[in-house]
Amino acid sequence: MCGIVGYVGPRQAAPIIMDGLRRLEYRGYDSSGIALLNGHGLDVRKAAGKLSVLADELEGTDTSGTIGIGHTRWATHGAPTTPNAHPHVDQSGRIALIHNGIVENATAIRKALIARGHEFTSETDTEVLAHLVGELYEGNLEEAVAAALRDVEGAYGIAVICAEEPDTLVAARNGSPIILGVGEDEWFIASDPSAILEHTRSVVYLDNGEMAVLNRDGYRVRTLSKRHIDKPVNQIEWDLATIERGGFEHFMLKEIFEQPESVENTMRGHLLEETGDVRVYGLKLSDEQARRINRIIITACGTSWHSALIGKYMIEELARIPTEVEYASEFRYRNPIVTEGTLVIAISQSGETADTLAALHEAKSRGARTIGLVNVVGSTISREVDGGLYLRCGPEIGVASTKAFTSQVAALALVTLRFARLGPMTAAEGRRYIDALSKLPAQIREILDRSAEVEVLAERFADATNALYLGRGVNFPVALEGALKLKEISYVHAEGYPAAEMKHGPIALIDENMPVIVVAPRDAVHGKIVSNIQEVRARGGKVIAIVNQGDDEIARLAEATFIVPETLDLLTPILTIIPLQLFSYYVALRRGCNVDQPRNLAKSVTVE
Ligand code: F6R
C-alpha cells in the first residue's frame, strides 16, 4: 500500500526521504510527495505518476530542511492526481500530513468542516484529517493530532509536521504499520523497515492506538490518551543486499532465483531426520494441545490463499484433520462457526494484509486458537497470533509474490507433519517426507538452471490474449497461482481450473489460439489428467505441460513440455510452480510490461 517515510536529525531530510521512498515504491506508485520544514515554513511538493516524476521536479531546486515527511501513494479515495497526492495541508497551510489507510468517517467530518468554513482541494480522506488536526491546533501539535485521532474511525498510519514546531514530527498508528527508526542523534519514521535500513537497524514497532513524538533530542511513545509507553528497540536482521536487485533485472526475477535458499531457510532447524518428525516450537502447541485440535480453518488472500489450499490437501491427507480454506475477506463477514478444538491458521507474506488481520481478529473473538505463517518479522499478524512460524524467506519486494508462496507451502508441510506425526503418520513415513523436503532446494535449483527453456516457451506464447491453467489435486491450486501470476504482471486474461472441471464450461473457450498450461507431474491422478489433455487437443488447444522426466505419453500430446524433478505427490507444488512463475515473468517482459510495478497493484494491501 502507500509508503511513508519521515526524518528528524542533523542531516538534510530530502535525499534521505527520497531514497526511502524509492525503496518503498513497490508499495504504491501512482503519485508521491514530500513536505519539508526549512526554517521559512512548510515546503510541500507533489507529483502524479512514478516517484521519478517527483525527483525530476525537485532536481535543481532548494530542498533544504532537516525535518520532513514523504509519501508514495496507492490511490483509495480519489484518482492518482497531483492534488490527491500526499502530503495534505490544513486550512492554514501550517500543518502537513501523510497517511496510509482509510478514514471511514471522512465524509461526515468533511461535511462538518465545510459547514465551519473549510475548503478542500482534493477528494481524499487524508486532507480531511489534515484539516481536522489544523482546526484543533492550539500551539501543541502532539495534542492536536491526538484529539483529531480520537474522532477518527478506520485505519491509519500517519506522520505530521507543523511549521510552528520546526523540531517535531508526530506519527501515529491504528491498523496501518508505522515503525520508528532509532539512529545516532537522528530518528526516522517509516511504514516498512526497508525505507530506513540504510541508516539504522534499530526499530520500534508502534502498536495500534499509539503515537510517537520525535524531536531533535529523542523520541517518546504514548497513547492517544497521553499514557507514556516504554517500547523495546528491536534489531532488523536483513542487510541492505536483501532489498537490492543484486544484478537481476527485476526484483521478481531475483526472488524467483532465491527460492532454493528461501525454501531451505523456511525449513532450517525444523526437520528431525532421525525421528521423521519436525520441531516447530514457535507454534506454541504442546502435544496435548495439538491432539485436541479437531478442525482447522486456514485464512488468507491472493497467493497466500492458494498456498492455503495446498495446505488443506496436505493436512487432510496426512494428518486427517478436517480443514477448510477461507478467503479472509469472506470469513470475517459471514458469522463463521468456530468450535472448541478449532485452530485458525492465518497466512500472510506481509503480515499486514487488512482482510487477513480482520479475519484473525474475528477468529480470536470467537475463541479460536490461532497460528500465523508470516514472513515479515514484527508485523502485526505475527504479533497478534498465539503462535506461528516465520517464513524466513527474506524481504519480498516484487509485487507479484513468488518466493513467499514456496516458503508458505514448505511451512504448511511442517505444520502438517507436526499434526500428522501425532496422528496416523509412522516414523518411517515421516522420514520419507523429511528426506523429500530436504531435497527440494537442490531440485528447485535444477529447474532454475533450465530457465532459458521457459523463456523460449514464453516467446512462443507471449501474444496470446487468454490462457487456461489446469491441474488436479494438490496441483489445482498451482494452476490458480500460475494463472494469477500471468494476469498480474502481463495483463493476459488467465483462469485456473481443476482439470476435470474444464468440460463443465471453460472448454467452450478452447481454440487453436488458446494456450492451455497443464500441471501434470506423475502423481496419483496422472492418468486422469492425460484424458483431460486429450480433450483439449481434440478442440485444437495448444498444451504446455509441466511433467516429470520420461512422460512420453504427455510429450506426444503436448505442444511443449517442461520437466520438473520428481518428489512426493503432496510436495510437487513447490517444484511445479517454479516454471509457471518464470513463464509469467518472461511473457510480461516480452509484452513490455513493468514487471516489478504492475498497473493498479501494490504490495501489502492494508485496506479492506
Ligand atoms: C499476488 C500477491 C497477492 C498477495 C495478497 C496477500 O502475487 O502478492 O495476491 O498474496 O495480497 O498478501 P499477504 O500474503 O501479504 O497477506
How would you sum up this structure, described in words?
There is one protein chain. The chain is an alpha/beta fold and 608 residues long. It has three domains: 3-236, Glutamine Phosphoribosylpyrophosphate, subunit 1, domain 1 (4-Layer Sandwich), CATH 3.60.20; 245-449, Rossmann fold, CATH 3.40.50; 450-600, Glucose-6-phosphate isomerase like protein, domain 1 (Rossmann fold). Helix content is 36%, strand content 23%. It is built from 19 helices and 26 strands. The chain has an eight-stranded antiparallel sheet, covered by helices on one side. Strands 5-6-7-8-12-13 form a six-stranded antiparallel sheet. Helix 11 (354-365) links the parallel strand 19 (342-348) and strand 20 (369-374). Helix 3 crosses helix 4 (125-136). The radius of gyration is 25 Å and the shape is globular. The mean pLDDT is 94. It binds fructose -6-phosphate (F6R). Fructose -6-phosphate binds at residues 301-304, 348-350, 353, 356, 400-401, 484, 488, 604-605. Fructose -6-phosphate binds next to helix 9 and helix 16.
Counted up, domains total 3
What order do the strands of the largest sheet run in, or round the barrel if closed? 3-2-4-1-10-9-11-14
User: In terms of per-residue confidence, which ranges show pLDDT below 50 for 5 or more consecutive residues?
Assistant: none
N- to C-terminal distance: 11 Å
How many strands? 26
Number of helices: 19
Averaged pLDDT: 94
Rg, Cα atoms, Å: 25 Å
The CATH homologous superfamily name of the largest domain equals Aminohydrolase, N-terminal nucleophile (Ntn) domain
User: What is the level 1 CATH name of the largest domain?
Assistant: Alpha Beta
Counting copies of identical and different chains, the oligomeric state is single chain
Largest sheet: 8 strands, antiparallel
Strand content: 15-25%
> What is the structural class?
alpha/beta
What are the distinct ligands in this entry? fructose -6-phosphate
